[in-house]
Amino acid sequence: MKKRIAVILTIALMAVIVTTAYAAVPSVSFYSIVENESVTVRTSDFPSGHTFHVYMGENGTMGIGGKLVSKITTGEGGAFLAKFFIPEELSDEDIIAVRFESVTDSKYHHYNWFFNETAIGSASSISSGTTYNNVGYGVPAFDVLSVSKGSTVTIRTRFFPSQQRYAVFMKDGALADITWYEVQGIETGEGNSQTITIAVPEALRYSEKWAIKLYNVNDGSYWYNLVDNINQ
């Protein structure tokens, strides 16, 4: 009888160990890179409701002690795209490390590295088994077409889904600022591409940089970009 109980306990313990081993682990892949300028990453299996600090550092550092380049919130978590500027201190580095550290729960952190050379990611680098905001070929994105300093930003969407509503948010591009201003809403209609001119809120007219976020009110996915407050 004692042997039977011991066997049952051993099997139960093994089941617990196996279940834990296959828990989802946050990861980061690289969708596109502009040498010495910016990198666009795609996350997978990120926890919901977390705030992450994003660091960049030299090769071999795992991003520890690196330059703080952004702060992001995960919303519903899962997968999303985000673009970060490469700091001047890391210009001309061959390899750059990127590190995400959660300030909500210190046990969540992840790092990866990329070659500092212009490239567009392959489909395999942006697909995964996640169900939230799972992206593949023709990944949604938006580009900044022009800026009227302190006044307006004109953007163009690409590969956006049809018949969806997006809320457009802006905030000061400074890392310490967490106040987002909802500036307008857009309907995607038939989807794919639209050109939109956004009026800059009065409170942000004199910011050096702006963060722009397009948030899908139907499924919680969002797309994020940074822009300098200069005429362009």
Kindly provide the radius of gyration, computed on alpha-carbon positions and rounded to a whole number of angstroms. Answer: 20 Å
Give the full name of the CATH homologous superfamily of the largest domain. Answer: Macroglobulin (MG2) domain
SSE order, as H and E? Answer: HEEEEEEEEEEEEEEE
Helix content: under 10%
Strand order of the largest sheet: 5-2-1-8
Q: Please give the largest β-sheet.
A: 4 strands, antiparallel
What labels would you give this structure?
Immunoglobulin-like; mainly beta; 9% helix; four-stranded antiparallel β-sheet; 1 helix; disordered N terminus; 2 domains
Walk me through the structure.
- With 232 residues, the chain is mainly β.
- It folds into two domains: 27-125, Macroglobulin (MG2) domain (Immunoglobulin-like), CATH 2.60.40; 141-228, Immunoglobulin-like (Sandwich).
- Helices cover 9% and strands 44% of the residues.
- It contains one helix and 15 strands; from the N terminus they run H-E-E-E-E-E-E-E-E-E-E-E-E-E-E-E.
- It has one helix spanning 2-21, and strands at residues 27-34, 38-44, 51-58, 67-73, 81-85, 95-102, 109-115, 119-120, 141-148, 152-158, 165-172, 181-187, 195-199, 209-216, 222-228.
- The strands form four sheets. It has a four-stranded antiparallel beta sheet, with no helix packed on it. A four-stranded antiparallel beta sheet has the order 4-3-6-7, with no helix packed on it. Strands 12-11-14-15 form a four-stranded antiparallel beta sheet, with no helix packed on it.
- A hairpin with a 6-residue loop joins strand 6 and strand 7.
- It is globular, with a radius of gyration of 20 Å.
